[in-house]
């Protein structure tokens, strides 16, 4: 039995001003992320819920959409207004959207 479907949006349909929460791990984030995104690794989420931005809705992204889907299911169950970004940063990069990194040479890992 599967759980309820999580709210989701494709990168192509993502609002220009979408508030992004990147739930990838630190090495993935450092390698490349969306400009303006906020970072909270999935592995630290439950311990850092108080750090969640209060955007409504909050768009959650990971590498390919799997982890962010689990995070969205969890947060939606807690009453947060969240939406999964289908395809994650791989889709983001494939669509030619801007990626920034700490070292100035962004890549998606």
Compact overview of the structure:
The protein has 109 residues and is of the alpha/beta class.
Describe the protein.
- The chain has 109 residues and is α/β, with parallel strands linked by helices.
- It has one domain (8-94): Rhodanese-like domain (Oxidized Rhodanese, domain 1), CATH 3.40.250.
- The chain contains three helices and five strands, in the order ββαββαβα.
- The protein has helices at residues 26-31, 66-77, 88-94; strands at residues 8-10, 19-22, 38-39, 58-61, 82-86.
- Strands 1-5-4-2-3 form a five-stranded parallel β-sheet.
- Strand 2, helix 1 and strand 3 (38-39) form a beta-alpha-beta unit.
- The longest helix is centred in the middle third of the chain and has 12 residues, at 66-77.
- It is globular, with a radius of gyration of 13 Å.
- Residues 14-101 form the Rhodanese domain.
- InterPro entries: GlpE_sulfurtransferase, Rhodanese-like_dom, Rhodanese-like_dom_sf.
- This is Rhodanese-like domain-containing protein.
- It comes from Pseudonocardia alaniniphila.
